[in-house]
């Protein structure tokens, strides 16, 4: 068995005591949330399309079954309800199985099992990652995260869905989060035919999640800019130590800076 020290997505989003004990598992940043969505999409896509001619339907995608190793690599767990089937084949099960709040309503009424069952659950998990709200919360109205969030998305009030504990997303990441919400809304569509495949989801995420996921913690300046900055500081210090007038400093600053860089 593999040791997964960073626990589950359930802990990360909802367990405040864990956050107090382990600061690295406190409220996730928006960049980390986007990375989690991207990793989860790739994992589910592999189950559906990476084992041809068979595909695997997990049937129980939820935060407690999404775990992280020491490097925050995502691992899907608990395949106890998983079913393997051939592509383009619908399998009738004696009874629908899964977790309330994450189960596709169409599956519970028809028992018709397709990969769109996992697509629905994926959409619910994405809504939970972005909102920080549980799939079912009887203390709120509406209690279903799907009913609550899709209503706001339809009214283009997407920022009201974002987890206030993480602060509102800003700049370019705000657009990424908004697009993720629209993807999630498609995934939880009441008509399975209107839902994308996980391959389509991953293809879409590559287009607008890549810059966020790959963005470094610190933005490094190009080498020449860093050189200019260091030379500028040295020239300014030299002028200050020389006690020259402000006017003469200004005249000599650019000249010495350019000369200094040329000689380097």
TrEMBL record:
Kindly give the Pfam families that the UniProt entry links to this protein: Pkinase (PF00069)
Q: What sequence ranges are listed for the domain Protein kinase?
A: 1-213
Q: Which domain of life is it from?
A: Eukaryota
Entry GO MF terms? ATP binding; protein kinase activity
InterPro entries, A to Z = Kinase-like_dom_sf, Prot_kinase_dom, Ser/Thr_kinase_AS
Task: State the PANTHER family in the record.
Answer: SERINE/THREONINE-PROTEIN KINASE-LIKE PROTEIN CCR4
Name the UniProt record assigns to this protein: Protein kinase domain-containing protein
| Source species | Linum tenue
